Amino acid sequence: MCGLPWQPRRKYRLIEGEIMADFVTSTHCQHWILSQKDLVERCQTANQRATCALKQFGATRIEIQPDGSLAYPGYMNGGEEYGGEKIASFPVPLKMEEELLIRRFYEQKIQQVCAAFSFPHKIQATAILYFKRFFLNWSVMEHDPKQIMLTCIYISCKVEEFHVSAEELGKGIQQDPQAVLKNELTVLQGLDFDLIVYSPYRSVDGFTYDMQNYFQLRDETNLQRIQEIKEAAIFVVDSLMLTDAVLLFPPGQIALAALRSANLEEKAVDFDRYLKSVVDRQGNKHSFTELVGCLNAIDQLLKQARPLIESDVKRIDRKLKYCRNPHLQDESRKRERKVKHKPRQALQDTVGNTSVESLLMET
């Protein structure tokens, strides 16, 4: 894996009035930059644990007890009863690729919520990374991803010192503030209380400033072109945040990949020359070829990303709800039988009044 910690030099780390701490010694670098093998294994472990719980207890909804033990509330008789009622049939567990699709859906929702609140990019980046880190340790079948998403946004606002109360957040997205608060400790434990996040957006700022100085860009035309590259790179980072790149590569490399991609369109600077200068200023610890290989790997992750298909999301979301509450499956079948006996016009009215948002987001 290309886990080389390229970051802007310390003299260019003065951004938004803060000196960035040393990334190499941070918990972000030491605990949350993984190999592809580690990433897959952790996701497999979480998925297998939830699948086993479904077979043993009949459902996957989990509660963490004060002593750290796990409890599956409401399940009795080897999972054959929930809340004292007989379960007609067991739900089908989500596959790993289905879990991935659900996670991507809610990561996009984080971006949308942050945009609706006009949060700065650092809030969005921190919230998405918290969400990704949490679901390295847990399956979406075990913890409601919608509620975890909201809690990640709330915690990221606190950590990044952008004060928004749970009441304000809940009101803005028409959710109960208690849904935001009740999972706060669970999320913090899932993150191992590692709250430091280095954002690729900040690295884009640092490298952009560095390029201006390296190429000695002073005239208005060239400064404008560099600014256009920066803005285009931010859009690339937005897309990369929805991939595994942020768990596999340091933010400095992600920023360089985004800037290189943006420069392919603008052709504003000799980017290979700039990359060579970055390697040289790192004391020749790593080669230009190694850096380019890492950036190519990041580009490939972006090319492999596929847009979410609405019908797939709805189908998997339905499976997920059945896993967490098996009675929903029985109730759904009862509703389907009733719908079959409705007049045709009544059925059309029912479908016409159902919004895509409610199908995707209802819990």
The helix/strand order is EEHHEEEEEHHHHHHHHHHHHHHHH
Report Rg.
23 Å
**What form results from the Cα inertia axes?**
globular
Task: Report the count of strand segments.
Answer: 7
Task: Determine the mean pLDDT.
Answer: 80
Describe the largest sheet.
3 strands, antiparallel
Structural class: mainly alpha
Task: Tell me what portion of residues adopts beta-strand conformation.
Answer: under 5%
Strand arrangement, major sheet: 5-6-7
Low-confidence region ranges: 8-20, 81-88, 329-363
Distance between the termini: 39 Å
Helix content: 55-70%
Number of helices: 18
Polypeptide structure, described:
- The structure is a single chain.
- With 363 residues, the protein is mostly helical.
- It has helices at residues 27-32, 36-57, 96-116, 121-137, 145-159, 166-172, 177-181, 184-190, 200-214, 220-240, 245-248, 251-266, 271-281, 288-304, 310-324, 327-340, 344-352, 356-361; strands spanning 14-15, 18-19, 63-64, 70-71, 75-76, 81-82, 85-86.
- The strands form three sheets. It has a three-stranded antiparallel sheet, with no helix packed on it. Strands 1-2 form a two-stranded antiparallel sheet.
- β1 (14-15) and β2 (18-19) form a beta hairpin.
- The longest helix is centred in the first third of the chain and has 22 residues, at 36-57.
- The chain starts with 13 loop residues before the first strand and ends with a helix.
Task: Please give the structural blueprint.
Elements: E1 14-15, E2 18-19, H1 27-32, H2 36-57, E3 63-64, E4 70-71, E5 75-76, E6 81-82, E7 85-86, H3 96-116, H4 121-137, H5 145-159, H6 166-172, H7 177-181, H8 184-190, H9 200-214, H10 220-240, H11 245-248, H12 251-266, H13 271-281, H14 288-304, H15 310-324, H16 327-340, H17 344-352, H18 356-361
Antiparallel strand pairs: 1-2, 3-4, 5-6, 6-7
